[in-house]
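Much of our argument rests on the idea that a fold can be written as discrete symbols. Part of our work consisted of pairing the sequence of a single chain with a tokenised description of its backbone. The amino acid sequence and the backbone structure tokens for this protein are reproduced below.
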Amino acid sequence: MLRLAPILLLTLLAATAHADEGYTLGLDLQADDADGFAATAFAILGVGENTSISGALGKSTTDLSQAANADSIYADLGVDHSFGLFGVRFTAAYWGDPDVLDSKDLQASVYLSGERGSIGLNYEDRSLEFELPPSDFFNRTSFPFDATGWGLNGRLEVSDNVTLYASGMDYDYSVAFLQQSSDRIRPLIVVSRLSVLSSLADWRVSGGIGVDVGEQRLGLDVSRWDGAITGSSNESITASLVTPLSLRVDMEIAIGADRSELFGDATVATLSFFYYGGEP
């Protein structure tokens, strides 16, 4: 998946020139005060009246403090098809740093959608592998394990200008993180949401509101999750503004604050651009 990801995304980007149902191209840049940085390019392509394919390719760098920097890659490819009221979505993804932690993910969703909102059921299968650092008693060790997750998401337009949304996910891991292995993993964990290790959640819930003000959109998102390794509680809040730069280009600016009871606080800034192609 990792070797094919750049080819798949470039193919998807090239195909947008022939998209009959329109397309979206995007670039997302993130940085935080925990020395983390991430950049992601993505595309959504309409290949029929009810079908779209999507792809993303990104890279992030985080400072692991007690180890070398972690440079992680993210790539995904998905397909979405609507049968009217009912729809399905399938995605394959790879993320991580093979020297620290990486994962191969398969995701599936079924959803119901209407004029005022949607609700979906999500499933995720993850195949992960840790590279545990050496300790006084152990050499560097590969530590493979699996995880499965189930969750729900929903969106509701309460008025023409206001939208509410929420989601939740609960994971079941194939191994218990014993004190011995947890002590070796703990030095790699940082507060940065851009770290691949932040994806190791026991459970995660989030919600938010979007409000249209003229041609702009204001957003507020909150989330909470518990770490699968440390059991630590983590919270995040993000405020965003989407504004048009032209008929086909939007820009989003977001500022977020993360708090972990074990690893401190971090502030995250995000700058995103969206280009909408196809027939105006």
The mean pLDDT is 83. The helical segments are 5-15, 179-185. Residues 5-15 form the longest helix (11 residues).
